[in-house]
Amino acid sequence: MSKGLTWRFSLIALFIIVSLLYLTPTLVSPLPSWWSGVLPKDKIHLGLDLQGGTHLVLDVETQKAVEGTLDLIGTDLEDVFNSKTLRYKKIGRIGGDRVGMTFYDKGTAEAAQKLIKDKYPNMELVPPYDDGGFVSIQLKMGDKEIQERKDRAVAQALETIRNRIDQFGVSEPVIAREGQTHIVVQLPGIKDPKRAIELIGRTARLEFKLVDETVNAATATPGTIPEDDEILVEKRTDPTTGAVTETPLVVKKKAMITGDLLTDAQVRIDSQFNQPYVAIEFNSTGARLFDQVTAANVGKRFAIVLDNTIYSAPVIRERISGGSAQISGSFTEKEASDLAIVLRAGSLPAPVDIVQNLTVGPSLGQDSINKGLIAGLVGVALVVIFMAIYYKMAGLVADFGMVLNVLYLMGALAALGATLTLPGIAAIVLLIGMSVDSNVLIFERIREEQRLGKPPKAALDSGYDKAFLTIMDSHVTTLITAAVLFQFGTGPVKGFAVSLSLGVIINLFTALVGTKAIFDFALLRLRVKRLSI
Amino acid sequence: MEFIGKTTIDFIGKKNISFVISSIIAILGIIGIIQIARGAANMGIDFSGGTAVQLKFAQPVPIQEARAALAKHNLKEANLQEIKEGNKLLIKVGKTAAGQQGKAADAIENAFRQELPGNQFVVESSSEIGPAIGDKLRQDTLVAVMISMVGIVIYIAWRFDFQFGIGALVATMHDVLAMFAVFFVLNKEVNLLFITAVLTIAGYSLTDTVVVFDRIRENLHKNTKDSLTSIFNVSINEVLSRTIITSLTTFLAAGSLFFFGGEVIHDFALALLIGIAVGTYSSVFVASPIVAVWEGRTKASKA
């Protein structure tokens, strides 16, 4: 028996040491220089509700990505037909899954059909049919490919957002996919959440479009402009008054150059006007295109369009070769640097919608920690005092078990890298109350056995034996709810479930091994004759 | 020290009284849940979608003034709540009131900045939840509650007997309904934290019930001569002191959360306190009497 006792005390001591080791980084700051690399260095992670920060759930509009792809295929086919001098009446996306083409005669349609089959073998081709005197064909994207495309859009969006956040500079961000179309972004301790949200949510589709000067923009309406034109708005903010002026401009629908041809974007300051601008660099394809387009359109205006808003529309004074250009607008330095970030990180494959935004300020977080700690301390104190009065020495043993519980639980949270949330603290406080339950069950049994006249050692052993099954049952039922909470819970609720389930498991150990070892020690080694219970 | 020595209270005999009390509580709870399902209760934006902003002002803001300021900016339907300490104001706007999704928080801040220019404030927390997310959360929550209930019944039916499983389930549902009833009557906000508290209490109340059941089973094996009612009564009396002690310690801990835990978990702690109280009551006055009545009937029909 005494051998078992040594073994049990060693185990208890070992767990204490391990817990303390894992808790040291949280309690001691900074870590002493001799703290080696093998020892744990991570502090207990605090949830956003405790340290402040922003939790976002973004919904990727994946259907838009599919439509974007179809639009690209449409533009591509236009180019192909033009280069082969196949005359067409109209090419455009129809609905959410197909591109329609209308030709003047059957021969051209059949020639086009052959071309398309070679170019897009994976897509379904609806054979030519008569369309009010013209001949139409349709190119349809299969369901499987649509699904793949949507999937890729989310993965790509995730990557782009990660790049943007990395460049924005947030320590320990969490960026993860959730379900089919959702992306969860957590930005702990962020100071300017609005700016970050704007940065993340911006599609950042950069396009260079020629301004159509043959149309008077001031009087243009969507019905009166040519079919390949569109009306966009140029926004200018007056730096002194902050007033925004909007000027409509008619531009060609087709983008001459797009943002995916960029290699770099940097903020520079215009030395003449002391105004920030964004300098961009094209890759070789982009540089060649830019060279060609500017050469062919000297004297015309070139609109720089970001997410369908015109940033500036300068006149091309001369051919620009070398592959660099600049975007100037009336922006502040912050705006310019954010623009540079989104341009560098690339555009989102589809727009994102913020469906959930939880922001907690740092002061509220600190307040919550303080109050949680006070609540915890008061809770512990009350329970400790109560148990000591009600069960005397045995109550103190139960109190010791409870303190072990809290220590082990904190250690386990640190070791597992779990996140401590405010409900997590609540779970710990609640566990303080519940952790003595096992001891109460045991003590009440012991009292019953003693009333039957059993000697201390026998009363103790059969008390533990008889309470064992009850304790198991009660712990398993709590574990079932904790597991369900963990499964469906998000954020703070999950934190609560983690603390609760860890606490329940640890409690099994402290109640059945921890306190029993102390009782056995008192009876066997200290030769205590009477249980103080 | 001992509060109570050996007791011989006839718990099962009081079943008629307790069943009436419990039925009233349960009916209130069901009304509350129906109102929640209809969206007529005080729903947190977790489930209904919308925007909640908590602001901390430099000087106190009379609630009438705040309401007037918001009304000027088309935010008439905002729900205002004052937090006593520290000049704090919690403003909630439903998904329909503010019009454009994602702009309500800005609109609220703007309204105060313009209407109360002398009173500086900081945004302590802000939450925006789209209606789709709210629906999903509500659905997930329902599923979670169902799964945990089923899991618990299966476990208890396996460990004890089917009747016991049902008794435990009814007692647990009773406690869940009671928590809904109180929150509904007090018009407290039903949000994710509340649901968390409900599930926690479901686990807690079950623990309580299981302890009583364990003793009943033990005594049923030991003693086959006495009537069922007396075995049930003896068992409940035997574990009564444990029931009271544990409820008391848990109540003390939850009470310290309630009084010192801060505004964020104030209602959560309240839900726990209610749950602990009804959980204790139900394990004694609901779970065991149901099983006793049922077992009694099966025995009578067999005879």
From TrEMBL, chain A:
Keyword rRNA processing attributed: no
SUPFAM superfamilies documented for this protein: Multidrug efflux transporter AcrB transmembrane domain (SSF82866)
InterPro entries from the UniProt entry: Acrflvin-R, SecD, SecD/SecF_arch_bac, SecD/SecF_CS, SecD_1st, SecD_SecF_C, SecD_SecF_C_bact, SecDF_P1_head
Domain Protein translocase subunit SecDF P1 stretches: 154-213
Recorded superkingdom: Bacteria
Pfam family for this entry, one: SecD_1st
Transmembrane segments: 372-391, 467-488, 500-524
Keywords associated with the record: Cell membrane, Membrane, Protein transport, Translocation, Transmembrane, Transmembrane helix, Transport
Membrane topology category: Multi-pass membrane protein
Keyword Calcium: no
Signal sequence residues: none
Database matches in PANTHER family: PROTEIN TRANSLOCASE SUBUNIT SECD, PROTEIN-EXPORT MEMBRANE PROTEIN SEC
Role description: Part of the Sec protein translocase complex. Interacts with the SecYEG preprotein conducting channel. SecDF uses the proton motive force (PMF) to complete protein translocation after the ATP-dependent function of SecA.
Entry's family note: Belongs to the SecD/SecF family. SecD subfamily.
NCBIfam families cross-referenced by the UniProt entry: 2A0604s01, secD
Protein name: Protein translocase subunit SecD
The species this protein was found in: Geotalea uraniireducens
UniProtKB/TrEMBL annotation, chain B:
Superkingdom field: Bacteria
The protein's role, per its UniProt record: Part of the Sec protein translocase complex. Interacts with the SecYEG preprotein conducting channel. SecDF uses the proton motive force (PMF) to complete protein translocation after the ATP-dependent function of SecA.
InterPro entries: SecD/SecF_arch_bac (IPR022813), SecD/SecF_bac (IPR022645), SecD/SecF_CS (IPR022646), SecD_SecF_C (IPR048634), SecD_SecF_C_bact (IPR055344), SecF_bac (IPR005665)
Gene name tied to this protein: secF
UniProt KW keywords: Cell membrane, Membrane, Protein transport, Translocation, Transmembrane, Transmembrane helix, Transport
Subunit field text: Forms a complex with SecD. Part of the essential Sec protein translocation apparatus which comprises SecA, SecYEG and auxiliary proteins SecDF. Other proteins may also be involved.
Family: Belongs to the SecD/SecF family. SecF subfamily.
Transmembrane region(s): 16-37, 141-158, 165-186, 192-213, 239-262, 268-294
SUPFAM superfamilies noted in UniProt: Multidrug efflux transporter AcrB transmembrane domain
Source species: Geotalea uraniireducens
HAMAP family to which the protein is assigned, alphabetical: SecF_B (MF_01464_B)
Gene3D superfamilies: Multidrug efflux transporter AcrB transmembrane domain
Domain annotation Protein export membrane protein SecD/SecF C-terminal: ranges: 120-295
Cellular compartments annotated: Cell membrane
Protein's membrane topology: Multi-pass membrane protein
Protein name: Protein-export membrane protein SecF
PANTHER family with a match to the protein in the record: PROTEIN TRANSLOCASE SUBUNIT SECF, PROTEIN-EXPORT MEMBRANE PROTEIN SEC
